[in-house]
Amino acid sequence: MIFKKYPKNWHVEKGLPLTEMDKKILSFQNKGHLVPSRKLIKTPEQIEGIRKSGVVNTGVLDLVAKEIHAGMSTAEIDKLVYDYTVSHGAIPAPLNYEGFPKSCCTSINEVVCHGIPDEEEILEEGDIINVDVSTILDGYFSDASRMFVIGKTSPEKQKLVDVAKECLEIGMQTAKPYCFVGDIGNAIQKHAHKNGFSVVRDLCGHGVGLEFHEEPDVEHYGKKGTGMLLVPGMVFTIEPMINMGTWQVFIDEEDEWTVVTEDELPSAQWEHTFVMTEHGVEILTY
Questions:
Q1: pTM value?
Q2: Residue 7, preceding bond cis, omega within 30 degrees?
Q3: Contact by Cβ (8 Å): 103, 118
Q4: Is the pLDDT score of 58 beyond 90?
């Protein structure tokens, strides 16, 4: 992936003063750090548009939380997502995205992510399922997912779901203005490993807002002080995928979408969209 450097003279070209944030970003760039391009720093108007998209996205997941139950097919979940989204004047971002055939992803037990809803896939007591929804409203994108436990599950699965949520919360708390993506990944990885779990390395969070997937990649493992600098105005997801066994995964050869744990042990994931502010992150989706 090629990153553009932060332009040193953009303010001159536009007749604007060099701000304190510009000076900070340029100081990090001059030290050899990877910094965001101007395009990745959203305007207040863009952030408001993404926030409104996030309201619809949260409403979708609230509806799923109310309706999900044992005996329900994942195709029924997909219909709920589609109907709610379009009735609120929005578009489900996954639908037809690079050929994906449905409006959301439904990933059960050992499926890490990108599970395709299906009429023959029926939720059973004890299943854990991630429902991942993304919304386009007036051209602005938002993205979030939640885990749902169907009835009562095993203590091991419940712990996995709980720790995955804790990993998201720890990543959120670690994300501060002028920290690095690697700081977030390092904190998440430590918590997952402390609890005996692993972190998927082949998939990650990402920038979002004007497109479905933007820079930077937000990996959920790594070293402090590495990766892109995060500055106020950037919008991105944190979405750790935590596995009970190995971190390694494979993609189903039949549908070329469904990501499954290599050892077929369960996986769990939670996701929010955030905007970085001067004081830390604000959640735009729940």
A1: 0.94
A2: no
A3: no
A4: yes
